[in-house]
């Protein structure tokens, strides 16, 4: 195919995607709304797209850029010369999940004498910790969060720790609700027990320091806190670099040492990897480097101020809307709300907002926490806040008029009574067909019925349902 035709084909496929720019998508992507930044990042990406991060001695340009990114993250998060953590080191990874996997792997491998290592993670901790525990055969000990504060109690973290605990986790902030865990108390517990403490700042590590400089009351969470041994921060979130670039920092080189994998007992080259991937494109790293260099401290302060104002405006819109309430007063870049009116169906509301061009993220109920709607707020949202307020009121009115989703009794009984083992591919395919998701139909515009079904199911059933459903979607395009 001619090159122009190939690009036209890609653009046609992209037409079905959510909008990645314009401040109307509140999840998955991070848009600063800075003119010319995309073009710069794309050009930098192209310059290094074919550079291979496998061997830093062959491609020293990539090594230099990675070291610069690590230094920038370390300085922002309380490390480096003149701080209480002068020997901070780090690695650039392909994303937050990889950073968290490596944090768990490093803590596990530092304690080879333990046959059954364990990690203590708040229930609000990112699902990537559960993925890491699953992949690495580490036991996950979840700590409940208070239904009001949405944080774990330090005493509950202490109760969850055992002699086999190799890592204790805190979030800054938690993704779901945007609140910062009691990092100082959790880190002190870990230090007293001689256990590593990882702060997952993938989501907030590049915003909380700037918000603090703007006067926000950000609690201690970084390397200035004694006992914090590692921190993760994603540059493809609020550093506004293209995906996927994250940084995993350790307080000193000795703590990082178990992160490396080296293997020489074969006839090929000796493999030495600081991260999970061996071959890595330099494209994302160069794009992140260009983004950080171009925006600079003044640029990030301006973007943080715009984001702060947008958060305040969206939270105000929720407060004045009857039937809605904030799950927590915003502390970072998240606005999360739920419904306190039994006649208002949150999942229908999400559909109504989507129909009006506002793409939010529904979150299902968990333990004592109700279903909620999550808004990840970026700088590009600021010019849209005035439009969102009436759109939210209009969507709420439409959701009330539509009424709640009522599942057929037999379908509700199926969701509540099934075990994961009973969910065969054939059963899920039939269920998807009945919900309008099968037969190549793709994902429907309105998802309230699907979300209501998932909300009614226990978490283990949700997991199996979604895994089987995604398996139906991911088929060869013959």
UniProtKB/TrEMBL annotation:
The keyword Lyase applies. InterPro entries: GrpII_AminoAcid_Decarb, PyrdxlP-dep_de-COase, PyrdxlP-dep_Trfase, PyrdxlP-dep_Trfase_major, PyrdxlP-dep_Trfase_small. GO terms for biological process: carboxylic acid metabolic process. Pfam families: Pyridoxal_deC. Its cofactor is pyridoxal 5'-phosphate. Keywords: Lyase, Pyridoxal phosphate. PANTHER family: PTHR42735, SPHINGOSINE-1-PHOSPHATE LYASE 1 (PTHR42735:SF6). Belongs to the group II decarboxylase family. Sphingosine-1-phosphate lyase subfamily. This is Glutamate or tyrosine decarboxylase. The lineage of its organism: Bacteria, Bacillati, Actinomycetota, Actinomycetes, Micromonosporales.
């Amino acid at each position: 195919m001619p090159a122009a035709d190939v690009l036209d084909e890609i653009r046609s496929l992209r037409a079905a995607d959510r909008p990645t720019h314009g401040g109307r998508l509140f999840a998955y992507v991070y848009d600063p709304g800075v003119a010319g930044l995309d073009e710069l990042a794309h050009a930098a990406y192209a310059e290094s797209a074919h550079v291979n991060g496998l061997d830093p001695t062959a491609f020293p340009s990539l090594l230099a850029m990675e070291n610069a990114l690590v230094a920038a993250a370390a300085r922002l998060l309380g490390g480096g010369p003149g701080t209480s953590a002068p020997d901070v080191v780090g690695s650039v990874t392909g994303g937050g999940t990889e950073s968290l996997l490596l944090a768990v792997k490093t803590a596990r491998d530092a304690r080879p004498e333990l046959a059954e290592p364990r990690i203590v993670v708040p229930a609000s901790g990112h699902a990537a910790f559960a993925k890491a525990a699953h992949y690495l055969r580490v036991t996950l000990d979840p700590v409940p969060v208070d239904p009001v504060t949405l944080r774990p109690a330090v005493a509950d973290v202490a109760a969850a720790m055992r002699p086999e605990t190799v890592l204790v986790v805190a979030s800054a902030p938690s993704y779901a609700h945007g609140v910062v865990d009691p990092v100082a108390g959790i880190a002190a517990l870990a230090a007293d027990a001689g256990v590593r403490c990882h702060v997952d700042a993938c989501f907030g590590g590049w915003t909380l320091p700037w918000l603090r400089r703007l006067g926000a009351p950000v609690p201690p969470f970084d390397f200035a806190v004694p006992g914090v041994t590692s921190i993760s921060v994603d540059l493809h979130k609020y550093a506004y670099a293209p995906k996927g670039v994250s940084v995993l920092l350790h307080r000193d080189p000795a703590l990082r040492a178990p992160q490396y994998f080296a293997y020489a007992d074969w006839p090929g080259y000796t493999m030495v990897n600081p991260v999970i991937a061996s071959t890595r494109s330099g494209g994302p790293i160069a794009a992140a480097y260009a983004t950080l260099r171009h925006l600079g401290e003044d640029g990030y302060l301006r973007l943080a101020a715009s984001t702060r104002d947008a958060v305040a405006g969206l939270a105000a819109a929720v407060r004045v809307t009857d039937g809605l309430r904030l799950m927590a007063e915003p502390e970072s870049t998240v606005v999360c709300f739920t419904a306190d009116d039994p006649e208002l169906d949150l999942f229908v509301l999400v559909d109504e907002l989507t129909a009006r061009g506002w793409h939010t993220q529904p979150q299902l109920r968990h333990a004592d926490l109700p279903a909620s709607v999550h808004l990840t707020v970026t700088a590009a949202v600021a010019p849209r806040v005035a439009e969102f307020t009436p759109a939210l009121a209009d969507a709420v009115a439409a959701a009330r008029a539509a009424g709640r989703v009522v599942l057929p009794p037999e379908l509700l009984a199926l969701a509540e009574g099934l075990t994961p083992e009973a969910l065969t591919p054939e059963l899920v395919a039939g269920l998807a067909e009945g919900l309008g998701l099968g037969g190549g139909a793709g994902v429907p515009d309105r998802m309230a019925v699907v979300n209501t079904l998932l909300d009614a199911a226990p978490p283990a059933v949700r997991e199996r349902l979604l895994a089987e459903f995604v398996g139906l979607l991911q088929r060869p395009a013959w």
